[in-house]
Every structure is written in C-alpha cells, then in structure tokens.
Write a structure and sequence with these properties.
The protein is α+β, with helices and mostly antiparallel strands and 178 residues long. It folds into two domains: 30 residues; 131 residues, Jelly Rolls, CATH 2.60.120. It is built from three helices and ten strands, in the order αββββββββββαα. The strands form two sheets. Strands 1-2-3-10-5-8 form a six-stranded antiparallel beta sheet, covered by helices on one side. Strands 4-9-6-7 form a four-stranded antiparallel beta sheet, with no helix packed on it. A hairpin with a 2-residue loop joins strand 6 and strand 7. It starts with a helix and ends with a helix.
C-alpha cells in the first residue's frame, strides 16, 4: 500500500510541469489569429459614448474577451474639460494610462501628477485613484491588466436611456466591478 502511494505521488510530481505547459499551450492556442484595429475605431462595440461623470468616447481596441481576460486596451477621446473620474479603486486590476494628446491631472493614493502628451502613469490595483481632463480635448490609451469587467461597466452605462446619477453610477460599478 505504501509503495502504491509513493508511485502515485511520484507520477503527480513528474506530471505537474507538463500539466502547466499544457494549460499554457491551450491558452496560447485560443486566439490563433492576430487582428488590426483601424485608427479611430473600436473593435467590438464601435464608439462607446460614456455617460455619467464625463461625456468621453471609448473605443475598445483589445477586449478582455480577446485575451481570456488577461488584458484590455481602450482608447479614450476626452471631450469633457474639467471632468474625469471620481476617486475609486480597482481591487484586482492594475491600470496604465498613456497620454496621446492633451493634459490631465491624476491622483494616485495621496500623490498628485500632471501628465501631458507622451507621459504615462501606472495605477496599482487596490490604490484609490482619479483623473481630471485639463485640456479642452485629449486622448489616452488605457491598459487594464488583468482585463477585469470595466468594459462591461462602460457598455452598461452607455446603454442607459438617461444620464445616470452618481448614486446609479456607484450602484452599477459595485454590481459589475466588485
């Protein structure tokens, strides 16, 4: 009996790296083709007209559904000078913003930053952050890793037939994101 347990344990130890490689290989194989997203277009949803805290346009360039939830990339055209997002937290996603055009103020925890075209900022998960558009117009690339559910949040809010209140936005955010 002890010999049988030893053999089973030895097989499990030897097989573990192969199972890991197999799972990684399967993940790599799920998206077998690359794709191009033309400038000024969103891949799956077209232009998403945001509602609530700002009136910006969001184009999903790489959806979480493209990457098994590993990463999402958005391009945001900012049309709401003096507006942005309230202080909020992503419990399970890091965010990176790359400013393509315009100027923004960011708050990350207690730290405050001013970003211009060409600047990037890293927002770690579980750290409160917010941003405000300073310039009349702006554009940013937003990267979320892992993708999380922010794409679903934006689609839900954009589909509303009215301008959501702050209370509605918070309720939707908590329902989808947390």
């Amino acid at each position: 009996m002890k010999r049988g347990k030893f053999i089973a344990a030895a097989i499990a130890i030897v097989a573990t790296p192969f199972n890991s490689i197999s799972n990684t290989y399967t993940k790599w194989q799920q998206n077998k083709k690359g794709f191009k997203i033309p400038a000024g277009e969103g891949r799956i949803h077209g232009h998403i007209q945001l509602k609530g805290v700002n009136k910006n346009i969001l184009d999903v360039k790489i959806s979480g559904s493209d990457t098994n939830g590993d990463i999402a990339i958005f391009e945001q055209t900012s049309l709401s000078q003096g507006r942005g997002t309230p202080l909020h937290i992503h419990p399970a996603q890091d965010e990176v913003f790359y400013v393509l055009e315009g100027a923004y103020h960011f708050q990350v925890g207690e730290d405050k930053f001013h970003l211009n075209a060409g600047d990037s900022i890293f927002l770690p998960r579980k750290v409160a952050h917010a941003w405000t558009q300073v310039s009349e117009k702006g554009r940013m690339t937003v990267i979320l890793q892992p993708a999380g559910k922010l794409e679903n949040f934006f689609i839900t809010v954009a589909a509303m037939d009215h301008e959501p209140s702050q209370a509605e936005m918070k309720k939707i955010y908590l329902k989808i994101m947390i």
